Amino acid sequence: PFEVEFVASGLTRTVPAGTSILSVAEQEGLPVFSSCEQGTCGTCVTAIVSGRADHRDSLLSQAERESNEQLCICVSRAEPGAGPLRL
Ligand code: FES
């Protein structure tokens, strides 16, 4: 589990193991977009305000991952031990 703050709405929520950031956002009624939910289409790509992503998609390039500027919220998570992810 890890913490995510959705900056635009001011909500902080815990993302449990086995649950995606996307699912948590949808449960809260936040305006998120998704399609494949498998980390391949890019529809759910979201900007990272702060924190470090553990990228689990198969879409972003190595350079994009290392830039830590965005993540696919349908599959990617927070890097363990790196503190909350702010999006
Ligand atoms: Fe397709 Fe996340 S919904 S990459």
Automatic annotation (TrEMBL):
Domain 2Fe-2S ferredoxin-type: 2-87
Keywords: 2Fe-2S, Flavoprotein, Iron, Iron-sulfur, Metal-binding, Oxidoreductase
Protein name: Oxidoreductase
Superkingdom assignment: Bacteria
